[in-house]
TrEMBL record:
The keyword Metal-binding applies. This is Cytochrome P450. Belongs to the cytochrome P450 family. One of its GO terms (molecular function) is oxidoreductase activity, acting on paired donors, with incorporation or reduction of molecular oxygen. Transmembrane segments: none annotated. Keywords: Heme, Iron, Metal-binding, Oxidoreductase. Heme binds at C510. InterPro entries: Cyt_P450, Cyt_P450_E_grp-I, Cyt_P450_sf. The keyword Lyase does not apply. It comes from Lactuca saligna. Its cofactor is heme.
Amino acid sequence: MPVIYQIPHLGRFDLFAFEHACPDIGFFLAHAAVKVLSGFLLYVPSPSPEFNLTMDGNASLEVDGTYDVHFGRQQRTPKSSMPINWPLLGMTPSLLWNFNHVHDYMTDVLRNNGGTIMYKGPWFTNMDMIFTSDPANFHYISSTNFHNYPKGPDFREIFDILGDGIFNCDSKLWELQHKTTMSLFNDAGFLMLLEKTIWKNVEEELIPVLEFMSEQGSTWDLQDIFQRLTFDGICNLLMDYDPKTLSVDLPYNQLERAITKTEEAIFSRHLLPKYYWKLQKRLQIGSEKHMTEASKLSDELFYKFINEKRHKRRSNICDVVKSEQVQDYTLLTGFMREYEDKIGSFGNNHDKIIKDTLLNLLIAGRDTTSTVLTWFFYLLAKNPTAEAKIYRELHAQLGLKEGQKWRSFGAKELGKLAYLHASLCEALRLFPPVPVNHKVSQEADTLPSSHHVRKNSIIILHSYAMGRMETIWGQDVLDFKPERWLSEQGGIKQVPSYKFTAFHAGPRTCLGGGRTIIYAKCIGSSPNEVRFDGQSN
């Protein structure tokens, strides 16, 4: 009897929860996690059973004798002209009418209107926006005139729970956090910790859970499995804390649940007028009440971790990296050390900055990664030819043989997996975990597309739409085609960041893009042999 992973039908906007995370750090874990897990599901030697995934007429992925993974159908919207600007309501009715596929809808609107539109919100709500998928505009806003387009006060208000973390601050404080985070991500101790954590999660959590599910033959939510995997991983990297949420009994975890409640409340703030959610917050009702409770819980836990780590440091149990063995090295200890003499100049509370940093990285590391994993395997299931090429590459480049005992792989070995790398880039093009990005103009300006920008205008950089523009990617833009990323020599083509925006562009470019690739390749090259057999329909 097959185990069934069931993923509910989600519109594109349902996966919009990652805009608040910003791509800067989230992709640090995302791409890397996918590569590890994709290989894991594509190669697992005997005596473990062979798993064959097939897609049936209901868009489910069935693993013969083992797994059945259900995905929502991908919808195509009819070609859309400019939304109607209604009296009083503005263009909002069109967005609401197409809400279950809003990203596809906006892609068609932008495609048919030159890549940039002026969106009119309801009267008196200050919700007018400029949507753009034009690479020239993206490059100008994110790089050329970067300082005129910070996240802005509205963004900071909506994401106030992120405090002074890297995704919610601008100017000098952002520069300090950006520089510090980049330094820590390139530290040899962190790189060893990253590799150690990935393989530990795969071997001790993911494999036992998959084996248990294959024996039980019941229904499982695949997206939940990925989210638990990445949550455990980022907690280990940040705080040396293993919540063990990915186990056969799928335990409840207070911190993980608090993060989820926080994201649900932030999503609601995007949909509701500011006065309404602020009233909810003042009265402590609805999602705002849940957000307050979640914030208190997460604050308590983070401050507990900070105090415990400080006590260890004072007891001379310090960060040590000796003979390729990681001892008590975490990002938390790194930030505590780096911020010790620097935060005071900003007039900020030292522990609060660290707490905000932990929360920002935790949200980014969990959500972006699990989203990439989910969409990547969805695309592989629909494209068995690409899956077969990845499988052959794993055996050819890593020297894997049938029946060989599973082992972990180093960064150099994973670097040989060009087709897997290309497949991940293609998945990120079609389904970026951060489909839109929010900016606000400090001063009036004119975009390269000749659109006038007023002071304090909201700009929406639509990465999802940009990844589906024929003018950028060709007539086969909707095809999953990893070959578009491969050069004639078999390497990876370098595409400008303002065209391939999964890692953003400019000063806020993802700090951990390269490390993300490593994480993803590791997940993709792990044990047990799972073959995806795509059926028609």
